[in-house]
Every structure is written in structure tokens, then in C-alpha cells.
Amino acid sequence: MKIGIGNDHVAVEMKTIIKQYIEETYGYEVINYGTDSTERFNYPISGYKVAKAVASHEVDKGIVICGTGGGISMAANKVKGIRCILCSEPYTAKLSREHNNTNMLAFGARVVGQELAKMIVDAWLTGEYEGGRHQIRIDMISEIEETQNLEAAK
Ligand code: RB5
User: Fold this and answer.
1) Phi, psi (degrees; rounded to nearest 5) at 136
2) Which residue from 6, 13, 25, 87 could staple onto 50, CB 3.0 to 4.6 Å apart?
3) Pocket-testing residue among 8, 65, 73, ligand 1, by greatest number of atoms within 8 A of Cβ
4) For residues 14 and 69, what is the distance between their CA atoms, to the nearest angstrom?
5) Which phi and psi (to 5°) does residue 66 adopt?
6) pTM score, two decimals?
7) 3: Cβ–Cβ under 8 A, 6 or more apart, which residues?
8) Counting runs of H as helices and runs of E as strands, what totals does the chain give?
9) What tens digit of pLDDT does each residue of 113-129 get?
10) Is the CB of 68 under 6 A from ligand 1?
């Protein structure tokens, strides 16, 4: 399993801790697409880079972190095929895998502490997509993305 990780200047320490945590706990390869400098860095750059890596299957899943997780998740979700969930607790992280088949996780380095962030990452990495009734809803999201339209809403 390959995980892409990205961050802005606010989340350098959190990115480093989470990268090391995933490598040591799961043995996954974690590829860094973010900045390692605390100089101002525009979060859409790393949000986009990780999202492109996920969408092109260069990596299996992506994790992005900025101050709130808001901006970087919005940037990631603009890339076709990306379903990025912004989480500040593990329940949403787990359900986002089971129901929404998320391929990216975002959280805020200014919002969650390091131990809570690890719990969110654990819930997300171990959650498995359930398929079934959830697929029709994901297909609807894809339809909106593809066509800027949704037949079922007419
Ligand atoms: C940077 O100041 C901050 O705006 C960024 O880390 C993030 O919170 C944006 O959504």
C-alpha cells in the first residue's frame, strides 16, 4: 500500500509525525508531496499534487493536512475521481470509508492533537468500503462531477 501525504506550512510537524506513524504502524510506503518548510506555502499546491497522485493510481490513498483541513480538502476534491473527507474525529473517518469509499482524508493540524490525529488515521486506514446500497450514491456524486447535472434530482 502506498499513501501520498501533503501539507502546507502550518502542518509540517503533524505531517512528519503522521508519515512516521503510518510507516512504523502499518509498514506502508508514505510519499511526501507536501512542504517541509515553515515558510508560507499555498495549500492548493500539495492538495492538488496528492489528489493527482491518487487519481492516477501513483498511490493508493492520500492524506492532506493544513491548518483546518478545509482549504486543502477543497482543492483535493476539485480533482476528478477524488472523494476527500475532512475529519476531526474517528467516527466520520471510518464511516467515510465504509459508506463513501473515500480515497483521501483531510484534517486540521490546528484542530486536532497528534494522538487524536493518529486515531483518525487508524479509523480511516482500516475502514473498508461496504459497497451495496452505497454505490448508487457514489455513482450520483460521479454523475455530478462528470456532467454538472443529476438526473435523479429532476
Ligand atoms: C494558513 O494560514 C491556513 O489558511 C491554512 O492552513 C488552512 O487552514 C486553510 O484552509
Assistant:
1) -60, -35
2) 6
3) 8
4) 12
5) -135, -155
6) 0.98
7) 22, 28, 29, 30, 31, 59, 60, 61, 62, 63
8) 6, 5
9) 999 999 999 999 999 99
10) yes
